[in-house]
Amino acid sequence: MRAVLPFALVLTMIVLHQDVWFWDSTYLVFGFLPIGLAYHIGFSILAACLFALLVWKYWPAGLEPGAADRPQDPAGGAQE
């Protein structure tokens, strides 16, 4: 059940990446930036934040060097 949220977030990002609603738009953001390019800038920032969150929350602690030497808390994460 823990993998449902990250899967849903990544699937949402895949759907949002298909920006068919801006293909024919001539609107300029700030007077010079095409709306499709502005959308992809925002999308890239959101994707970077999402993947940083996924690594922070869902990366298995056992893959880190020396992780076997650290005690584990009951929730499954390594204690500092």
Measured by DSSP, the beta-strand proportion falls in 5-15%
Radius of gyration equals 19 Å
Query: Which sequence of strands runs across the widest sheet?
Result: 1-2
Distance between the termini: 26 Å
Give the structural class.
mainly alpha
What's the β-strand tally?
A: 2
Low-confidence regions? none
Q: What summary fits the major beta sheet? A: 2 strands, antiparallel
Report on the structure:
The protein contains two helices and two strands. It has helices at 4-17, 35-58; strands at 28-29, 33-34. The longest helix is centred in the middle third of the chain and has 24 residues, at 35-58. It is elongated. The model has no long low-confidence stretch (mean pLDDT 84).
Please outline what is shown here.
It contains 2 helices and 2 strands; from the N terminus they run αββα. It is mainly alpha-helical and 80 residues long.
Give the helix/strand layout.
Elements (H helix, E strand, L loop, with lengths): L3 H14 L10 E2 L3 E2 H24 L22
Antiparallel strand pairs: 1-2
